[in-house]
Each structure stands twice: as structure tokens, then as C-alpha cells.
Design goal:
Blueprint (H helix, E strand, L loop, with lengths): L1 H9 L4 H11 L7 H18 L2 E6 L11 E4 L6 H8 L5 E5 L8 H8 L2 E3 L4 H16 L4 E2 L22 H6 L3 E7 L2 H4 L7 E7 L5 H4 L4 H31 L1
Parallel strand pairs: 1-7, 2-5, 2-6, 3-4, 3-5
Antiparallel strand pairs: 6-7
Helix pairs in contact: 1-3, 3-4
Length: about 250
């Protein structure tokens, strides 16, 4: 909360225009997807910088050249989506929990990004979201869904990935992009405004030929393991550097 307040204070002179423009862009008939997304992509780095956060990003070259893929990251907190909005240049559609649909600014972001809202307690509604994702991915839209279903609350540790989250990718036969988020939870879920580095690593995608013989639960476990391995490798890196530095 403290860092959010800091972001607001440092953005106080820009906020009126930003809010005006955000409400304008909710008119999806007047403004196309690229215009709407580009505005968020432009202002988010400023907001993040005002929060004394630096984002380290690797692996953008791993993103498929063609649109129509789904990104599957670990989920650490409210800041996660901002890391994607800063680093991912092409429009994407997030899948968001129903609890966010009436929250100020999140409600507007949902409209601007044409997000899919999921109620994980309602199986029928969840299946409808999967069908919607399948249809939209086939038309060339990119998606972001958190397969843990909720934020970890365990720092850089992962919860189990749910196999159902991968059904739309299987049905659409689209590329699956694992994404590792590191220290994103420190932005909004800790009581600190110290300078912070958040890492986002886009890993090599799995194409349909790579997973066509796997069950959804197996895909979920495999994608989770890829992300876990990346996080462990990054966490070990300082120790390796320290070892070399001492030799």
C-alpha cells in the first residue's frame, strides 16, 4: 500500500489526464485494440518508475512471431500485470478473477483490455471462459492467465498449477509461453518503498507438437517445473558470482 501511495503522489500532475484518457479508451467501439493497449503500455513504465521499481526483463525473443499464444506465469501479487504491461509490446488479454471487475481502475483496465472474467467457483462459467479463450486465440489474440488460480503468498515459491488453465491452449493448439516472475510480490505486498528490482523472464514456448500427447495435468506440471527451474537458477546466480569473486 505504501508504494501505491508513492506512485500516486509522484504521478499527481499526470493523473488527471491519465484518468480522462482511460475513461475515453473504455469506448471499445471508437478506439481499436492497439490504440487502447499502447496507451497503457506507455504510461505503466512511468508509474513503475515513480514507485522506485526497476524491471529486469529477458527472453522477449522467445515470444512467438505470430500472434495467438497464451502466457502462463507464476502469480505473486497485484504488481504482476504491470510487469507484463511494461515489457510485452503486443496487446494481450488477461484472465482476471471476478473480484476485480468492480474495483476502480481495474474495472476500466478490464474494459480497455477486453479481459475475460472468471469465477473459479462456477464450473459452467469457467468452461465458458475456456471456450471464449479458445475462440479468441484462434483469431490471433494473445492471452495471459495465471494457472495457480490465486497469488502464491509464498514469495518466489509456486503453488500447484491447475490443469484446467491449459485447456484453452490445448483446444486452440496454440503456443504456450511459460513466464517466470521473481520478487514481484515485494512491490505491493510488503510495507516498503525501498528501491526494488522485479524480474520477468519469458521462457521458450511449447508448440502444439511439443505437448499434443500430454494431458492437461502433465502440461501444467511441466510448465511449473520450467518456471521453478528458472527461479532457482536466478536465485543461485549471486552465489555463483560471489564464489567467482572470491577466487
Amino acid at each position: 500500500m505504501e508504494r501505491i501511495i508513492l506512485m500516486v503522489l509522484y504521478s499527481i500532475f499526470q493523473l488527471p489526464y491519465w484518468l480522462f484518457r482511460i475513461f475515453q479508451l473504455c469506448d471499445t467501439e471508437k478506439y481499436d485494440t492497439k490504440i487502447r493497449y499502447n496507451f497503457l503500455h506507455k504510461i505503466v513504465p512511468v508509474i513503475i518508475r515513480h514507485g522506485r521499481i526497476q524491471i529486469e526483463c529477458t527472453g522477449l525473443e522467445n515470444l512467438p512471431k505470430e500472434n495467438g499464444y497464451i502466457m502462463f506465469p507464476n502469480h505473486q501479487g497485484l504488481f504482476d500485470a504491470l510487469a507484463f504491461l511494461q515489457t510485452h509490446e503486443r496487446p494481450f488479454v488477461p484472465v482476471m478473477k471476478k473480484e476485480t471487475k468492480n474495483v476502480f481502475l481495474l474495472k476500466q483496465a478490464i474494459q480497455i483490455l477486453q479481459a475475460e472474467i472468471i469465477d473459479r467457483e462456477d464450473i459452467r462459467q469457467s468452461l465458458q471462459v475456456i471456450m471464449n479463450m479458445t475462440r479468441r486465440v484462434k483469431t490471433g489474440e494473445n492471452f495471459l492467465i495465471f494457472p495457480e488460480g490465486t497469488r502464491s503468498r509464498k514469495g518466489n515459491e509456486l503453488l500447484d498449477f491447475k490443469g484446467g488453465s491449459f485447456k484453452s491452449a490445448i483446444n486452440a493448439r496454440c503456443p504456450i509461453v511459460p513466464v517466470a516472475l521473481i520478487d514481484s510480490f515485494k512491490a505491493f505486498d510488503t510495507h516498503s518503498i525501498k528501491k526494488l528490482k522485479v524480474q520477468i523472464h519469458y521462457l521458450k514456448p511449447l508448440y502444439y507438437e511439443d505437448y499434443k500427447n500430454m494431458k492437461s495435468i502433465e502440461i501444467a506440471a511441466y510448465v511449473s517445473s520450467l518456471i521453478q527451474d528458472k527461479i532457482k537458477a536466478v536465485e543461485l546466480q549471486p552465489k555463483i558470482n560471489d564464489t567467482h569473486a572470491g577466487c
